[in-house]
Amino acid sequence: MSSHSRGKNGKYRKVPTYEDDYDNDDNDDFIMDAVRSQQQMLQDQDESLDILGQGAARLGQISLEISSELQTQNKMLDEMGDELDSAELNLAVVTKKTQELIKKSGGCGYFSAIVGLSLVVILLFFLIVYT
């Protein structure tokens, strides 16, 4: 059986055989499968990149919020440091004045007597209450 036949214009043309059709169909199917596979991979990559982009945007937003919170806390710490410095100065002034008062009132002797008498009063109070 010949694989050639005459066309309308009298020239010979190749008549496709079953094997030729089968090979072309296989090649077309293989190419189409490869193209579909590549398109699917591109879609998957696009989806992954979208998810990654969203994650990066969220991370950027969180870092901005953390930065803002740190700035606020730094201001609060600076203010607290200033207040502590002021309180330390006030305590130093009060301590100095207390020391001067103790010296003017007779020194540690009077102070010790006041503390001792206060302890005796407290002791007597407890003895009266619990007897």
TrEMBL record:
What SUPFAM superfamilies does the database record attribute to this sequence?
SNARE fusion complex
- Tell me the segments the record calls region Disordered: 1-23
Q: Which named protein is this? A: t-SNARE coiled-coil homology domain-containing protein
Location of the protein in the cell: Membrane
- According to the record, the signal peptide region is none
Q: Per the record, where are the segments of Basic residues compositional bias?
A: 1-14
UniProt keywords (A-Z) are: Coiled coil, Membrane, Transmembrane, Transmembrane helix, Transport
Q: Which GO terms describe its cellular component?
A: cytoplasm; endomembrane system; membrane
Residue spans making up a coiled coil are 70-97
Where is the chain membrane-spanning? 107-130
* Main location as per UniProt: membrane
Q: Which segments constitute the T-SNARE coiled-coil homology domain?
A: 39-101
Could you tell me which InterPro entries the record lists for this protein?
A: T_SNARE_dom
Topology in the lipid bilayer is annotated as:
Single-pass membrane protein
